Amino acid sequence: MTIQYDRSKPYNNLPLLPPSDDKVISINVLQQVNHANRALAELKGFAKKLPNQSMLVNTISLREAKASTEIENIFTTDDELYKALSGNEVKLNPNAKEVLRYRQALWKGVHDIRENGHFNLSIIINIYQQIKEVNDSIRPPQTETTIRRRGSGLLGGSVIYTPPRGEDLIEKMLLNLKLTNTM
């Protein structure tokens, strides 16, 4: 059965996270976890040979920030990001600024989880506020957020997705993310 939805209307039927174990754990997933563990062990061995391991970790967090912001149609190049980090760039591209804020918020979130011992709604809101440089909390229902295709042409500006709407609904979904800290 395929679920039909209108991408121009809020999709309020997102499943709660995290999914139950029976929907996630399978032989294939366990095999992939095993492959990932081996690759991480290999990476750990290579990282020990680096004179400054933080360079690797910072590069990974920067790449993650860049990939995550692309979901929101915020694009920049690795070159722009590394120039911005070097401090030599006087005029910084707004997209590069947002990626760097995302990276900084990611590290702040890691710090807060370690400090609090768990992941909670307050941390999620603080991360969002730091990325967007706002004091907003959960998006109010009257905010008509849509994710649109970039560019001009036939499909430019067309709606790709309309996220859920409604403070109570979004708060319920965020509160469901009760993750235990294993750091």
Q: Please tell me the total number of domains.
A: 1
| Number of DSSP strand runs | 2
Radius of gyration: 19 Å
User: How many individual helices?
Assistant: 7
- SSE topology string: HHHHHHEEH
Beta-strand share of residues: under 5%
- Terminal CA distance reads 39 Å
Given the C-alpha coordinates, what overall shape results? Answer: globular
Main pleated sheet: 2 strands, antiparallel
Low-confidence stretches: none
- Helix percent reads 40-55%
Structural class: mainly alpha
Overall mean confidence score, pLDDT? 83
Overview of the molecule:
The protein is an all-alpha fold. It has one domain (25-175). Helices cover 52% and strands 3% of the residues. The chain contains seven helices and two strands, in the order ααααααββα. The protein has helices spanning 21-24, 27-47, 53-70, 78-86, 94-116, 121-132, 167-175, and strands at 147-148, 159-161. The chain has a two-stranded antiparallel ribbon with strand order 1-2. Helix 3 (53-70) packs across helix 5. The longest helix is centred in the middle third of the chain and has 23 residues, at 94-116. It is globular. The N and C termini lie far apart (39 Å). The relative contact order is 0.13. The mean pLDDT is 83.
Secondary-structure topology with pairs:
Layout: H1 21-24, H2 27-47, H3 53-70, H4 78-86, H5 94-116, H6 121-132, E1 147-148, E2 159-161, H7 167-175
Antiparallel strand pairs: 1-2
Helix pairs in contact: 3-5, 4-5, 5-6
